[in-house]
Amino acid sequence: MERLPDLAGLTHAEKDALIHALWDWVTALRQEVVRLTAEVTRLQGEVAHLRGQMAKNSRNSSIPSSAEGLKKTKSMRKQGSRPPGGQPGHSGSTLKQVAQPDHVVDHPLPEVCDVCGESLTGQATTEIRQVFDLPPVTMEVTEHRIHALRCTCGKLHRSEFPPEVTAPVQYGPGVKAQAVYLTQHHMLPVARTANVLADLYGVPISTGTVQAMIGEASERLAPTVARIADAVAQADVAGADESGFRVAGKLNWLHTAVTDTLTWLGLHAKRGKAAFEDFGLLYRLKGTLVHDGWASYRELTCTHALCNAHHLRELTFVHEECGQAWAKRMIDLLVSAHHETVAAHGQPLTALRIQAIRTHYEAILAEAAAANPEKPASGRRGRTAQSVPFNLYRRLRDHADDVLRFTTDPRVPFSNNLAEQAIRMPKVKHKIAGCFRTTEGAQAFCIIRSYLATLQKQHFDLFQSLIQVFKGNTPQPNFSG
Fold first, then answer.
1. What is the rounded CA–CA span in Å between residue 197 and residue 141?
2. For residues 262 and 232, is the Cβ–Cβ distance under 8 A?
3. What are the structural domain ranges in the chain?
4. What is the secondary structure of 411-448 as a DSSP string?
5. pLDDT tens digit string along 227-259?
6. What is the pTM of this model?
7. Which candidate, 12, 143, 284, 316, has a CA 20 to 30 Å from the CA of 194?
8. What is the Cα 50 distance to its own chain's centre?
């Protein structure tokens, strides 16, 4: 370190110059300390943000479990809440013997005892075992013949083919239904579906033919799916969600609107308002819409309810990663209130109980406000970035009525799981295929999937229903749900 000069031998002017130099040096050091302090603060915030991002998983955020790779995932369900095996009320599917088997194979006893050689007489006891198996399945060809005959008067009489028989050679409704059932409900790729039909039934079919069958089903089902959309728009309570969907190499958005008994899916290049306007469904909704709080939904004039499954995940992150105790208390309150509404079996909670839940809710928010003061405006353009805990607290505060809607209206669910489930299987299809190659194919999938998901909710036989679709007798779901 450089030593200071001997001040005894300096003149007054030299001492003044040295003092000014030292003052400038100290000032520069102070400025550097201020700059470095600001830089450290910025980096600490960045590190905290990155640590928070790394700590997010399917348990404490909206990241799907499939995005976590081979890491062991954690469930928010408490251990023992649902033990392994069938749950109470589940009918089960245990194989049981039938009274009238299709075939009986009798295995007779020997005529004499293999020890003493005496004839076996008397009444034998009988034990039966039954084997359930599939019979051999082969292609069945039905030939249609028409006849022509000219009368002696000159008129030509000619019989007619059935209206569904339009070509010299064609596939019947059973084959078409099987192709659509496998690709649109069980999410098999088109090529694998063609292989399955060839291997199991001896059906020599091309991928282009399978695609044509999917297109035919879509065309036949479009009017019914339009009625499903109208019915959802008239529902007292509906859920909505959207997710990215790649089509022809470009990002599109899969939108869904659902009720307990109806499912509608639609594809659009946009995520928000433009899609809502083109579809028209959500703008016609006058009941309550359950959603994840995304800003575009807020512009709709209906009543709103927020998905509390999202809140539980975010609160878990704030509690476990940010160390804020109020988040755990909010989790306990929301879960407890949910259990109360379930136990009420569709009956509303009492006004006194609703007020008690709201009072407890606001007391927890007061704790959150004290732990997360709002950062002052930075002077830069735009909103000042706030912390994750503050943003969550602000949403719970500003939209408290929507968060607790499930306590005041027994028709409103605790979460938006129905809408999220409607998107889950299409995402499986998307992963299998990589992306849809054409917009037409993706839109056909949305139409067919809307129909099948609705029928599944209403306990229709999907395969038999598709057979009727290709016969021209499309089964209609109950639209009043």
1. 15
2. yes
3. 168-288+417-480, 308-372+387-414
4. TS-SS-HHHHHHHHHHHHHHHHHSSBS-HHHHHHHHHH
5. 999 999 999 999 999 999 899 889 999 999 999
6. 0.80
7. 143
8. 27
